[in-house]
Amino acid sequence: MPVFDEKQEELEHYETMMGVPRGRLAVALDSITDAMALVGQHGVYCQSQRWPGKPVMDIQIVMKALSDAKELIQNVMEELKKTKSF
């Protein structure tokens, strides 16, 4: 199912509030946040043997990538807000 069908209600809500570009970024940000929560839960059960209390390396890498993507999206949303390009 295409994302525009699957997330139709969320897209309409955020696009109405923020404009199309920022609204779509907000939905993407929510999806990334949800993915981070799921990966974080998985990391609780997959602990590193080398570093007790830390998730295994692949989970750390995925969390870093998601965190970086989230930061970039937040920055773009702020820039769009400043320039009123929505």
State the main characteristics.
mainly alpha; 86 residues
The total count of helices amounts to 4
Question: Mean of the pLDDT scores?
Answer: 92
Overall geometry = elongated
Strand content: under 5%
Number of domains: 1
Taken in chain order, the helices and strands follow as: HHHH
The secondary structure category is: mainly alpha
**Tally of strands:** 0
Can you give a write-up of this model?
Helix content is 79%, strand content 0%. With 86 residues, it is mainly alpha-helical. The protein has one domain (3-28, 36-83). Helix 2 packs across helix 3 (20-45).
SSE blueprint and pairings:
Blueprint: H1 3-6, H2 8-18, H3 20-45, H4 57-83
Helix pairs in contact: 2-3, 3-4
Summed up:
The protein has helices spanning 3-6, 8-18, 20-45, 57-83.
